[in-house]
Amino acid sequence: MSLSQAVLYDFELADRRVRLWKRVGESYEHVLMKALGYAMFVGAYPNLEIERSVSLRYKPDLVARDDDRRFLFWGECGQTSVRKTAWLLKHAGVKRLVLFKIATGQGQPISLANELQTSINEKYRTSGRVEIISFVSDIVARTIERRIKRVPQSWYNRTSV
């Protein structure tokens, strides 16, 4: 198979079959974070969707809306700029924003949280509105079978911004 081809992955997430495409240029880790985020939050947001276009400047990796189409939950996986994070908080009316990462070194989520706190006005970061979930560095090995009923707390660290 050529590296330029998309690959379809089958996951079993929270007792649901979910099929996700790894697009050209996208890493498997990015696809896995979407799957893990879905498994973590679909219980709280039953209408959670993966990569649904929302007719905004940005397309979420994970999103849940209420009946009035307001954003209850927005998940971003991997690299997310401070500028994008600030825009979502200021202009999209996101009630809860979660940034998903895979740990690459000590202090990474804390450094990002500090950068967001410094760069984004506090009125847009009200208590519990923004958090960073950093999966352990061996998360790919822990989920190799792609059957994730739930995401145990030992698989991640949570940092509030």
Would you mind describing this structure in some detail?
- With 161 residues, the chain is an alpha/beta fold.
- The chain has a single domain (7-160), classed as Restriction endonuclease-like alpha-beta roll fold, CATH 3.10.640.10.
- It contains four helices and nine strands.
- It has helices spanning 28-41, 82-91, 108-119, 139-142, and strands spanning 7-13, 16-22, 49-50, 62-65, 71-77, 97-102, 130-135, 147-148, 156-160.
- The strands form two sheets. It has a six-stranded mixed sheet. It has a three-stranded mixed sheet with strand order 2-1-8, with helices on one face.
- β6 (97-102), α3 (108-119) and β7 form a beta-alpha-beta unit.
- The model has no long low-confidence stretch (mean pLDDT 92).
Summary tags:
161 residues; 29% strand; single chain; 3-stranded mixed β-sheet; alpha/beta; 25% helix
